[in-house]
Amino acid sequence: MATYHKILVAVDLSNESDVVLRKAQLIAGPDADIHLVYVQEPMDNVYVGIVPQSAAFSGLGDLEAQLGEELKQKLTVLGDKFSIAAENQHILNGSPAHEIHHFAKSYEVELIVIGTHGQKGLQLLLGSTANAVLHGAGCDVLSVRIGAA
């Protein structure tokens, strides 16, 4: 089996992120450079058409900044738990699959490790981040099944 030296581990910062990161460390080479990545989607993308564009919601940018700080803290705790250096902990902003692909190309990543819930039915038809990452990646992708069977 090939040893990977540059690995991107994409996490959603849920409790299941430990499973994904643990799997990446198991298959990493002894001197592997592991990058821990979380992608924050801009709130205006997530809530477009739901949140009215009025003065009442003018604080959306402040809320997004506060959320970003909380996410950074969670990423730091996860990174520290698995001995991932601070400079290898990244919060990106945008569409998850697009940002993961862009990061992987920019850093010449050899393997992307991402969790999947093994969606079925309508969820499968609608797709998932893991599926989008798999189909657009320029490197190997390991999809780690997490959650309920």
3D structure, described in words:
The protein has 149 residues and is of the alpha/beta class. The chain contains six helices and five strands; from the N terminus they run E-H-E-H-H-E-H-E-H-H-E. The chain has a single domain, classed as Rossmann fold (3-Layer(aba) Sandwich). It has helices spanning 17-27, 43-46, 60-81, 96-106, 121-126, 129-136; strands spanning 4-10, 28-40, 89-93, 111-116, 140-145. Helix 4 packs parallel to helix 6.
Identify the notable features of this structure and list them briefly:
alpha/beta, five-stranded parallel sheet, 149 residues, 5 strands, globular
Helix fraction?
40-55%
> First CA to last CA: what distance?
27 Å
Number of domains: 1
Structural class: alpha/beta
For this entry, what is the oligomeric state of its chains? single chain
Low-confidence stretches: 122-126
Considering the protein shown, what is the CATH homologous superfamily? HUPs
Instruction: Give a short account of the largest sheet.
Output: 5 strands, parallel
- Sketch the topology as an H/E string, one letter per element: EHEHHEHEHHE
How many beta-strand runs?
5
Number of helices: 6
Rounded average pLDDT: 83
CATH topology: Rossmann fold
Beta-strand percentage? 15-25%
- Which geometry do the CA atoms define? globular
Strand order within the widest sheet?
3-2-1-4-5
Tell me which CATH architecture applies here. Answer: 3-Layer(aba) Sandwich
